[in-house]
């Protein structure tokens, strides 16, 4: 059983850190990241965009969870956190640190994000019943 209060606080912390990192990294990439090749910049911009948009999606899920706790939305939130870390995180590490093998996590992160979006169908179906 997940302690709802602790889970919600951890999500707020994750959202705060992820959102702030997205904004700061985007600014760094636009200014100090000019020394990187255009191909690398494009990949990092994609990771940053996905991180920011899915962090906002996670925030929306959290607001619904605060008003109506749901096991499905809890799973949705977990999938979004995993997706953000695995997709964006692995791309950041691959291209900024040079650890190539970690880049193999990106597709799993993308699938986790997609599953999070699809899980909303189950939430809608349950609410309908």
Order of secondary-structure elements = HHHH
What's the domain count? 1
Give the rounded overall mean pLDDT.
94
Number of strands: 0
Helix content: over 70%
Ranges where pLDDT stays below 50 over 5 or more residues in a row are none
Overall outline? elongated
Alpha-carbon Rg, integer: 16 Å
How widely separated are the two ends? 24 Å
Q: Oligomerization state of this entry? A: single chain
Major pleated sheet:
none
Beta fraction = under 5%
- Would you tell me the structural class of the helices and strands? mainly alpha
InterPro entries: DUF423
Transmembrane segments: 48-65, 72-93, 105-124
Family: Belongs to the UPF0382 family.
Protein name: Membrane protein
Features:
single chain, DUF423, membrane, transmembrane, Membrane protein, 129 residues, elongated, 4 helices, mainly alpha, transmembrane helix
Helix and strand layout, with pairings?
Layout: H1 4-31, H2 38-67, H3 71-97, H4 106-128
Main location: membrane
Family: Belongs to the UPF0382 family.
Transmembrane segments: 48-65, 72-93, 105-124
